[in-house]
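Hello again, I could really use a second opinion on something today. I owe you a coffee for this, so here goes:
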Amino acid sequence: MENEELIKLCSDKAQKWLTPAYDAETQAEVKRMLENPDKTELIEAFYKDLEFGTGGLRGIMGVGSNRMNIYTVGAATQGLSNYLNKCFAGKKDISVVVGHDCRNNSRLFAEISANIFSANGIKVYLFEDMRPTPEMSFAIRHLGCQSGIILTASHNPKEYNGYKAYWDDGAQVLAPHDKGIIDEVNKIASAADIKFEGNKELIQIIGKDIDDEYLRQVHTISIDPEVIKRQKDLKIVYTPIHGTGMMLIPQSLKLWGFENVHCVPEQMVKSGDFPTVVSPNPENAEALTLAIKLAKEIDADIVMASDPDADRVGMACKDDKGEWVLINGNQTCLIFLYYIIKNRIAMGKMKGNEFIVKTIVTTELIKSVADKNNIKMLDCYTGFKWIAREIRLREGKEQYIGGGEESYGFLAEDFVRDKDAVSACSLLAEICAWAKDQGKTLYDILMEIYVEYGFSKEVTVNVVKPGKSGADEIKAMMDNFRACPPKELGGSEVVLVKDYKTLKATDANGNVTDLDMPEPSNVLQFFTADGTKISVRPSGTEPKIKFYMEIKGEMGCPKCYAGANADAMEKVEAVKKSLGI
């Protein structure tokens, strides 16, 4: 599309925002953009509509159809209200939970959404202040609601906000509801279609009662309370990175019996500007700088951090040289599931119907742990809604005891249906106490897992391809991998290819079997004779293609980590060469 054409399209769209359905401040900002000789801002704000996708909304805050504001949030809520009223037409008291994080405008968007739901005859339970995403999931189930929303952009930069929709099981919406909601949202033509005038009678403020019940239930997942009593002085450093974790995580740790918790004071300040970090993402070492500094000062046992909506957890511990190291998402998930399985067995808590879940791109070492201990393990697509689906399908028949993914999300309980940093931080502290009780650190436990079950190195490589040409390149790369799959990777023969788009698996002899997955997905996996696993998928939200690499190795002793790691990194480079990246 030529620039002139694009400017005209955006200007025509912007003109529609100069009607009385939009507030004066919004109209003034749109006028300013239209009159500005530099049309960049106008184009960015109006060249497309912020899409309500399967994960809800996420975008930069500001005025315009491609921005997060009261009108785009309003359209999403009106569409969801229309869908709920259709879906539960015979039900006289449809209800929803509305929660939000610490971000700028999150409270405003939450209150606007509560008004819109209530204007559509839907009962609203609105949290009094910011709360963790998992507590919102819990509240849907606890209060018997049909749906719920959370206003959050997770760990995105401060300019962003987002909107996630949940169904009556407390999980993010899946088919057919995701598509049904999207269709209703797309029918909202303008602000005039949105019912902004709320019905106060239908809005109930919730807070402490839900907090207390949620924390009480989180405490029930503790496996070994006695070990906590012996190690109640475990030195824990925690940071909520200015977000919702501060509302409940220190409280949960106290309830579990930990008496020596040190919160990073500069980051216990609620702020949507995240002033002490470049990015509020606990995956990044930078976000843990202040926490590790405090840990060094007090000689702590563990550092833990939750992201702004407290659904993901990052951690650091001391290695065998006493240096602070970050534990990645695969390792964290592995430690959690190893502890849960080993200690439930040791405490005689297994009944024989337990299962765990991981995503297809998460480390296969988890499967080794599960197999060796005769525990059923299920693989699912990336995203916690798929883990929640596996729990729902087995409800009342099998017992879920834990599940997670490489992107730092873990869920230890079934009374919440999204990843949960509140329970994860509490359980992580227990694991650390259990290790210390044996004179070990979390790092020692990780080394023991590697010695017993084999070593594994996970590396994610992101190949960024911006713009329209980039999207075409990414498509061509996936097409090429499908048409001509690699015969070898890093010198080892490819023995199995799984294509989740066709839901077929093909071995080295050309034998084809079906993949049992709920729907197709644009993911390819290559498995080699030496145990290497490569997963390739285009990002759904960013202009990049992701390569998740898992390199297998052996570790003869806990001190052999450096050698095993160096060998694996050499293999990573060889695999990258084979893939041409």
Remarks:
- Residues 561-579 form the longest helix (19 residues).
- The two ends are 31 Å apart (CA to CA).
- The CA atoms of residues 27 and 555 lie 64 Å apart.
